[in-house]
Write a structure and sequence with these properties.
Number of strands: 19
Largest sheet: 5 strands, mixed
Number of helices: 14
Strand order of the largest sheet: 1-3-2-4-5
Shape: elongated
Structural class: alpha+beta
Helix content: 25-40%
Length: about 325
């Protein structure tokens, strides 16, 4: 049997039961990963799946990585063998198998030792709030002043991963947003025991009535109170073209669900985690635990971020080189074409 399958077979959770089933029913199981698009006119990136010897089973699968597919060479390529136990050890993902074997071995040697830990052991990672109507709930400073909205009911908010630049969101960052009159002020009424007249007038505007009819708002009681508003210790980008950015929150900003909020356990240092996040081991781990989207974007879901490996100590320089090379390899498999 031969199938054209989505490239998500290399990382998606729903792909694992499929491969388990094929391994339990066929003697030979092969996956061919193709870096260049098989169908350039389509948005879907695809790989190939081959199975032979129905009625038997196998404890191994083979993965072949091709730059492009010529229709003949691709069908006959054998690929590198991988035991199912090793595949399961990598979270039942094929994507790490694209790495050179020595890089995989070096990564596992550090990741499975006391020299490293997971982000989940250091922090909680979660999405920010969903306002239900960003245009209504986020005000420009000039708008807030004109409407006479009380300052204590406005929270500076990070609304996009594009805002995660440098080491931290701090007072200077907020001053720049203020000068630009950016719509960064969330109308946060969670702590309001009563609503000032100025706020009531704003809620009763045509824009407010339109917001009230939106799905997320009409499911809330009261509709104007945005849930899950919190100020994390750090922000983590959700989708990135290079590597996920981790930035300190020194200005007590909140965030939308366009970025992740990172809340540390046991009073750990935000600066320490930010510096450790930039280690080549962690950058490679982001590629391993995250997953690619179209256009070369790397997406890191909260559950994936929790598994990212963080070094406990300085990794040997020669390993850093291998980890950087591994990051480059997986980055090239994000299907930018």
């Amino acid at each position: 049997m031969a199938f054209v399958v989505p490239a998500e077979i290399g990382h998606a959770p729903y792909a694992a039961p499929l491969l388990e089933w094929f391994a339990a029913h066929f003697a030979d199981l092969r996956v061919v990963a193709v870096r260049e698009k098989l169908f350039p006119e389509l948005s879907e990136d695809v790989w190939l799946l081959f199975a032979d010897g129905y009625g038997s089973r196998t404890e191994h699968l083979k993965l072949a990585a091709l730059e492009s597919f010529d229709g003949v060479r691709g069908c006959g390529v054998e690929g590198e063998g991988c035991s199912l136990s090793e595949w399961r050890r990598w979270g039942r993902r094929l994507r790490p198998m694209l790495l050179p074997s020595d890089c995989r071995a070096a990564y596992r040697a550090v990741a499975d030792s006391s020299r490293a830990t997971s982000l989940g052991s250091l922090a909680q990672v979660g999405i920010g709030y969903v306002s239900g109507d960003n245009a209504f709930f986020h005000l420009r400073p000039s708008e807030a002043a004109r409407l006479d909205i009380p300052a204590h009911m406005l929270r500076p908010s990070v609304r996009s991963g594009k805002q995660l630049k440098g080491d931290a969101i701090d007072a200077a960052t907020l001053a720049a947003w203020q000068r630009d009159d950016a719509p960064h002020l969330l109308l946060d009424l969670n702590a309001a025991s009563s609503l000032p007249d100025a706020v009531r007038r704003y809620l009763d505007t045509e824009a407010g009535q339109e917001a009230q009819r939106r799905y997320k708002c009409r499911k809330r009681d009261p509709w104007y109170v945005v849930p899950n508003v919190f100020a994390p210790d750090l922000f983590l980008s959700y989708m990135s073209s290079r590597s996920p950015a981790m930035v300190e929150n020194r200005a007590q900003c909140v965030c939308t669900n366009a970025v992740h909020g990172v809340r540390l356990h046991n009073g750990s240092s935000p600066s320490d985690l930010r510096l450790r996040w930039r280690n080549p081991l962690t950058q490679l781990s982001c590629e391993i635990e995250g997953h690619p989207l179209g256009g070369g974007v790397l997406k890191l879901e909260p559950r994936e971020a929790l598994r990212v490996v963080i070094p406990n100590e300085e990794v040997l320089p020669e390993l850093n080189l291998a980890f950087r090379e591994g990051t480059d390899v997986l980055s090239q498999w994000r299907h930018r074409g």
